[in-house]
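Hey team,

Filing this mostly as a record. A colleague (T.K.) asked me to run one chain through the structure pipeline before their review meeting, and I want the input and output archived in the tracker in case anyone asks later how it was produced. No errors, nothing strange. Just documentation.

Input sequence:
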Amino acid sequence: MKWMDFVKTRPYLYHLTDFSNIEGIRETRVLAPAALLMKRAGREDLIKQHRTNHERVAIYGQKVLVRDQAPLKRANMTLPDDYHFEDFIENLNRRVFFWPGTSDHPIASGVNHFRRYQGEQPSILRVESQSLIVANAGSYPEYSRYNSGAPRWAHELPSPRGPNTFLPGPRFERSPCDVREVTFLVEIKLPIDTMVGRTPAGPWGPLFR
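Output structure:
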């Protein structure tokens, strides 16, 4: 799948975060993978640990909330031989995640993700897909056709997970409409036109003032 084909179908990307993280994001202008936040906080013990609750880690005196992985159920997935549940947790923690969508809202999986945390009044970032790539020249997305962190049984079978859950564009042999998650294995710079809101449909205001 080519990036420009993806952008035509999914011109916007969405990222959910806790409201308490917004000021730190404004200051740094980046989104970092959970594993990198844990390393900076001296909490590398968390990188392979299943989070049933949110974790707050301290980085240079500032608290950052890392969201739970409660929907990630080992019994709902099948893994390859010699690939363990902890390996998959680490795989997730090394990524920055976005839900694809249009200018109106993210895909249904992203809306459902918001609804799970709606009572916490989180914040949602909305960024143009092409702007994000331009701001991160040399960084390439990997795609998942699953909601990777919330496996469920289908047709009496657990959902497959493993090292091929996320694939780069040349290996993602499906259409842009099949993409459920867009991920990056690096810290991501946010472009100046990034917007922030409190629901998947806005209203939106500029993140950077």
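Quick notes for T.K.: Residues 3-16+71-203 form one domain. Residues 57 and 63 are 6 Å apart (CA to CA).
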